[in-house]
């Protein structure tokens, strides 16, 4: 059985909110975010309420083999220019090796096949070497660098900008799928 049959993205439901908040408030997740503060349940509920009404944002929980492991956030969906921004993370600390790659593959397929976009953009904190490596591995191209864009712990931090077009993903996805099937499943 292909990993693609085990991987799925499900709409965020109210019953999922505690799990997502627990994931998001883990220090190692917060460290990769613009906002590193612990989020309250009240703030989280406001996010969910706004998400439900939004025409430019989508969130999905990533399941593998029926177990929730992470989340996909698609924001700033621009129907005119056919582009969006994405963010994601594996929240489960006991996720199997390669689960982030499977989440990325599943998410990119979902975005390009279910949202009318031609381009996905990403902003990565310059100190997040794991995410930088991930975006390159998935086929994103670095499009820019926002030098000293944010201040963290009194230090100026760069933001790395990435982009990928639908036709680029079409060319790279089969190779990435083969790597996943050869390494992780």
UniProtKB/TrEMBL annotation:
The keyword Hydrolase does not apply. PROSITE patterns: GNAT. It comes from the Bacteria. InterPro entries: Acyl_CoA_acyltransferase (IPR016181), GNAT_dom (IPR000182), PseH (IPR020036). GO terms for molecular function: acyltransferase activity, transferring groups other than amino-acyl groups. The keyword Transferase applies. Coiled coil: none annotated. Pfam families: Acetyltransf_4. Residues 7-158 form the N-acetyltransferase domain. Keywords: Transferase. This is UDP-4-amino-4, 6-dideoxy-N-acetyl-beta-L-altrosamine N-acetyltransferase. It comes from Domibacillus iocasae.
């Amino acid at each position: 059985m292909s990993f693609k049959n085990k991987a799925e993205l499900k709409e965020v439901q109210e019953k999922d909110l505690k799990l997502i908040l627990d994931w998001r408030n883990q220090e190692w997740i917060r460290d990769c975010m613009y906002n590193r503060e612990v989020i309250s349940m009240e703030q989280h509920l406001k996010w969910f309420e706004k998400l439900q009404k939004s025409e430019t944002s989508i969130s999905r929980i990533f399941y593998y083999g029926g177990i929730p492991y992470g989340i996909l956030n698609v924001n700033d969906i621009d129907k005119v220019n056919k582009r969006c921004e994405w963010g994601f993370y594996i929240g489960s600390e006991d996720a199997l090796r390669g689960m982030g790659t499977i989440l990325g593959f599943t998410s990119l397929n979902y975005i390009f096949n279910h949202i009318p976009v031609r381009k996905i953009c990403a902003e990565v904190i310059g100190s997040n070497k794991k995410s930088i490596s991930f975006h390159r591995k998935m086929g994103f191209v670095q499009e820019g660098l926002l030098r000293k864009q944010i201040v963290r712990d009194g230090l100026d931090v760069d933001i790395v900008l990435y982009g990928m077009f639908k036709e680029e993903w079409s060319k790279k996805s089969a190779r990435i799928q083969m790597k996943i099937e050869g390494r992780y499943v």
